[in-house]
Design a protein that fits this description.
Cathepsin B, Chain A, single chain, Aminopeptidase, 8-stranded mixed β-sheet, 2 domains, alpha+beta
């Protein structure tokens, strides 16, 4: 047996294996061609002198250090011969060559063969996605650190996927709040309520994003202690708006938020926080929200809020509330994203002026009761809009 990179000439054999391995949700000829010619991915095949024995497909997305094992299949006649294990090792080597320090995947709960394969290979189960597949089966989340010396200490921050393009700030704040007070429910109603309170511009011509003062005020009203660091005392993101009328609305809203922050005693510091300063506050129990430029992750220039979940010597870890379903991502790609510390420093600024903004959320001794309507009502599950993943129940065959 030998393992090599797949080529376009292998598509017929890959399709034949795909049809034999999966009853539904199969990769098409067009998808294989895309993966082999255009996607930031690696497809590896195992073969002997007669036939294709199996394949593994690994995706490399975002400006993070995570690879995603998307699909693996082994021909029926080759099972039990170590082909699956060899493909997993080759996939890990390909991920390491792409400077990915972590491999993640999803497996159906009823796919015990794949669970055994990856658990023997050193993967740990770190979560469950309920009602994940088309037939309502659960998905088990697995992860392996490809560099064993990197062992981050992560906060137990829940994940909530934003449901609208402009609610990354409220969704990040909701995650931080529930990390500090688990009784808070994460719902779309709360997401929209915080957005209404926090947005800088609210006009019929377009939805507005949330600035640091708006998010800080929303948290403080719910009984949390907050502190804001921003390097520019002016109206955040006003240079990205051309309309004089919009600029005037943004200015008035910003001035009102400044006045309310002062009345409520919210510390607003003109300056920046480096990674070491953020980590020191995280170590003291603070959950930071950080404004980043999304260009390095999504190749689109828009401001975006994330919530920090941990640090180690190499990475800053974040929950990103945006799940890029259109590009085949799932929540697995957005949870505890490891971003190199130097890359995170470059991301944590936006626009021509290099706006840097951080909102620090911490527990307050004066907390509202859990049934306070301002917290969003009775507890329920929150995240929405999951992308269906693909894991076969057959031996050693799995799609993620």
């Amino acid at each position: 047996m030998r393992i090599r990179s797949a080529a376009v000439a292998d598509i017929d054999a890959l399709l034949e294996l795909e049809l034999a391995s999966f009853a539904s949700d199969r990769l098409s000829r067009r998808q294989f061609r895309y993966m082999l010619t255009r996607a930031h991915a690696q497809t590896l095949v195992a073969e002997d002198d007669q036939r294709l024995l199996g394949y593994v497909l690994v995706l490399f997305s975002r400006a993070t250090s995570v690879a995603r094992l998307y699909s693996i299949a082994v021909a029926e006649q080759a099972r039990g011969q170590g082909v699956g294990r060899a493909l997993v090792v080759a996939a890990e080597q390909a991920a390491w060559a792409e400077e990915r320090a972590f491999m993640r995947l999803e497996i159906r709960r009823d796919n015990t063969a794949s669970q055994a394969l990856f658990e023997v290979a050193g993967y740990r189960r770190f979560g469950v996605l309920s009602d994940y597949y088309a037939d309502h089966e659960e998905a088990l989340r697995y992860e392996k650190r490809l560099s064993p010396d990197r062992k981050p200490l992560l906060k137990r921050v829940p994940f909530y996927a934003q449901t609208l393009d402009f609610t990354c700030g409220p969704s990040s704040l909701m995650m931080a709040m529930q990390a500090l007070r688990p009784e808070i429910e994460l719902t779309r109603t709360l997401e929209l309520r915080i957005w209404r309170e926090s947005t800088t511009i609210f006009m019929t011509s377009g939805h507005g994003g949330c600035g640091p003062l708006g998010l800080a005020l929303a948290a403080e009203r719910r009984g949390f202690s907050v502190e804001v660091f921003v390097n520019d005392p002016g109206v955040p993101l006003i240079d990205s708006v051309r309309s004089p009328e919009k600029k005037e609305v943004m200015r008035l809203v910003h001035e009102d938020m400044c006045a309310e922050s002062e009345r409520r005693g919210i510390p607003v510091q003109q300056g920046t926080l480096g990674i070491e300063d953020l980590q020191a506050r995280w170590d003291r129990g603070v959950v930071p929200l950080v404004l980043i430029s999304s260009y390095r992750i999504y190749r689109e220039k828009f401001p975006h809020w994330v919530v920090v979940t941990g640090f180690d010597a190499h990475f800053v870890y974040c929950h990103d509330p945006y799940v890029d379903l259109d590009n085949g991502e799932t929540t697995l790609d957005s949870i505890d994203m490891p971003i190199r510390r130097e890359d995170f420093s470059r991301m944590a600024r936006y626009g021509r002026v290099g706006l840097q903004a951080v909102v620090l959320i911490s527990a307050s001794q004066d907390q509202p009761q859990a049934n306070d309507p301002a917290l969003g009502g009775p507890r329920a599950h929150g995240s929405v809009g999951e992308q269906e993943a693909r894991i076969s129940a057959q031996d050693n065959n799995a799609h993620g």
